[in-house]
Specification:
The protein is mainly alpha-helical. 79% of the residues lie in helices and 0% in strands.
């Protein structure tokens, strides 16, 4: 059996070996298609809201409505990720998202009701996301688990790009309402694929006691463990600060009077850089090297953003954002450590918590730095987001050095 202790070597796995597991391959492919559907739905819904109201604020709220409720949902309902059969939970989650997209496209709901519907779906998203992540951790062990997360990250980046392109093409050719139906169809396909292809597995925990009480107790227990709390923050904060800068790209391009459409190129640089970073770090580096590079990669995430204080032109700005995206590979060096720190019970809730916290803080980041940009300008606010990321890298360095010096 491969050891996963910090001092012993871990065999380097290949992506081919990870994808050879048919159960993981099914989760990987269905999740990738679902992310395409997510990107299509989010952007198309924002277009619909703006077309109906003319309000940039409501359009932004529509964009973030699928992110912000996820953390409360994980805290209040997260224990269900371990208490319900995973196949039914994951397939039901995709089915719910498909039904919501159909309702948004065809029901003629008022804007407030549409936003409420998106928020309700976001509340339960951590449940089937956590269940899926728990299964991945069970089926892939050692370095295979880390590379599985790397594949998920790369697929997420690529799927976001495909979803944005597909959404734009679908809105232009079919209209926003029919474009939402395209997204709904994708959700229904992946729901059926999970229902027909995933084994009928037992829940990880018995369904006893109140869901709310159990969820609150589980989330509180996770957050009270100092080492686990630090690992959660290490995964949340850099992403939140970078999302704050990402949310200002359109404003930066407009204030600098770049050519029309150039903002799309700049926005594509982050996920493309993320894809390249995960590929290089995940495929070429040994596990111990990835873990040693966590702090330098977090620094890479923030350092290029400082360059926006000098108001770079379009191509230098694209290069800076590409480098920033590559820094997201820091997360690969935390995956094994995070998995080892989890308690034996409640892993589905723990994975739901880390993912929902990421989504929620990535929704708050643009709002916070957007408010700051109104005072300082978008370039200066993006640079400050980079400085906050560098401070986070310094904080991670302090406790990682401290942990490395502990005996045993």
């Amino acid at each position: 059996m491969t050891t996963t202790t910090a001092d012993a070597p871990v065999r380097r796995t290949t992506y081919r070996e990870v994808l050879a597991d048919p159960r993981y391959r099914l989760l990987f492919l269905t999740r990738t298609v679902a992310i395409i559907a997510d990107s299509l739905r989010i952007t198309t819904f924002s277009v619909l809201v703006f077309a109906g109201t003319g309000s940039p604020l409501l359009s932004a709220v529509a964009f973030g409505a699928g992110f912000l409720p996820q953390l409360p949902g994980s805290v209040l309902l997260g224990s269900l990720a371990d208490r319900l059969p995973p196949r039914a939970l994951i397939a039901g989650g995709y089915l719910l998202e498909g039904a919501a997209a159909i309702a948004l496209a065809t029901a003629g709901l008022p804007i407030a009701a549409s936003l409420a519907l998106v928020a309700v779906v976001a509340l339960v998203t951590p449940l089937f996301g956590g269940a899926s992540a728990r299964l991945t951790a069970e089926w892939l062990t050692g370095d295979a688990y880390v590379l599985g997360r790397s594949l998920n990250n790369m697929a997420s980046s690529g799927a976001q790009l495909v979803g944005l392109a597909l959404g734009g093409a679908a809105v232009a050719s079919l209209g926003a309402h029919r474009a939402l139906l395209v997204g709904a169809g994708l959700y229904l396909v992946v729901s059926a694929a999970v229902r027909l292809g995933l084994p009928d597995l037992r829940p990880a925990a018995s369904a006893t006691g109140s869901v709310l009480r159990s969820s609150l107790r589980g989330a509180g227990g996770l957050l009270r463990v100092p080492g686990l709390r630090r690992l959660l923050l290490a995964q949340w904060l850099p992403s939140a600060f970078t999302a704050g800068a990402e949310g200002l790209i359109v404003a930066y391009a407009g204030q600098r009077r770049f050519a029309p459409g150039s903002y799309a190129l700049l926005m594509a640089c982050l996920p493309f850089g993320m894809l390249l970073g995960d590929l290089l770090v995940g495929r070429l580096l040994w596990p111990a090297t990835r873990e040693r590079l966590v702090v330098p990669l977090v620094a890479l995430l923030g350092l290029p953003l400082l360059g926006f204080a000098a108001a770079p032109g379009p191509w230098p700005a694209a290069a800076l954002l590409l480098l920033t995206g590559a820094g997201f590979a820091y997360g690969l060096g935390l995956q094994r450590v995070f998995l080892d720190a989890l308690p034996a019970d409640g892993q589905g809730q723990a994975f739901g918590l880390v993912n929902s916290g990421n989504m929620t803080l990535q929704g708050l980041g643009p709002a916070c730095f957007g408010a700051l940009a109104a005072l300082t300008g978008s370039g200066a606010a993006m640079a400050l987001a980079g400085a906050c990321t560098l401070l986070t890298a310094a904080w991670i360095a302090t406790w990682r050095q401290s942990a490395a010096g502990e005996p045993g």
